[in-house]
């Protein structure tokens, strides 16, 4: 399936990254040489996406968009000339599901990727192409085997029939079930390919876990109708949403970076050698 549009929910308040996020949105924090959001847009572009709908909280639209579009005398960012970026404001942080729903009008009746703005792929370990290849018209959610800690942090799938080594039917979904209630260890780790029918599921949702409108509950609705698959990833995404994982993301992408990897690797080796 070809997917030409991606929604990037980036309207969370980033409380776990305070104080860095007091006045700078989490997705604008730099990772090596570019803000987190640019890494995410580039991942989508590598998968053939030309249009991005970024969901932001009020007041930061210009900051975020001037990065790509070049406002007030700046040129468009090199390499992004043919890319369309649409801004959608989520007035209140009512949850990830609510953020995705705000993109409904911009997406229309098209299948779309949903890329969480605080999760980054290491280039070369991209998974979006696998989601598109796995889809038979149904939504496909990227899954990853979670450890105990992850079962408190992510939505978790109720797996059904396996359709291939990595592809499984999703029969249900529970947000942050914890170890005791977890139906499996297969967690939703921040990359989704949705059939637009997910918007109908989101429309009708009441607040769920944590009092927020949960994307996981909409996935549970799709699963009820037999309209959802999972694809088990063979690589982790990097999480820039907490202090410790932000550091890890910077280190990992520094080791990937064509210009900086050599000196960064040598520096880390020296540092560890000294410790
Ligand atoms: P998180 O819960 O990880 O992000 O949401 P957060 O709310 O920014 O983090 P903390 O807990 O306060 O530190 C996952 C993704 O969903 C988006 C976030 O921007 C992030 O990409 N999100 C979350 C929204 O866009 N709107 C919301 O109301 C909630």
Structural class: alpha/beta
- Strand tally is 13
Question: With helices defined by DSSP (H or I, 4 residues minimum), what is the helix count?
Answer: 10
Largest sheet: 9 strands, mixed
**Approximate strand percentage:** 15-25%
Any key phrases for this structure?
single chain, 275 residues, alpha/beta, 9-stranded mixed sheet, two-stranded antiparallel sheet, 13 strands, 24% strand
Please provide a written account of the structure:
With 275 residues, the chain is an alpha/beta fold. The chain has a single domain (5-274), classed as Alpha-Beta Complex (Spore Coat Polysaccharide Biosynthesis Protein SpsA, Chain A). The chain is built from 10 helices and 13 strands. The protein has helices at 36-46, 61-69, 96-101, 104-107, 128-134, 178-181, 198-203, 215-224, 243-256, 261-274, and strands at residues 5-9, 30-31, 34-35, 51-56, 84-89, 112-115, 119-120, 139-145, 155-162, 167-175, 186-194, 228-232, 238-239. The chain has a 9-stranded mixed β-sheet. A two-stranded antiparallel ribbon has the order 2-3. Strand 2 and strand 3 form a beta hairpin. Helix 9 crosses helix 10. The protein is globular, with a radius of gyration of 18 Å. The model has no long low-confidence stretch (mean pLDDT 94). Uridine 5'-triphosphate binds next to helix 3.
In short:
The protein is α/β, with parallel strands linked by helices and 275 residues long. The chain contains ten helices and 13 strands. A nine-stranded mixed beta sheet has the order 5-4-1-6-11-8-12-10-9. Strands 2-3 form a two-stranded antiparallel ribbon. A two-stranded antiparallel ribbon has the order 7-13.
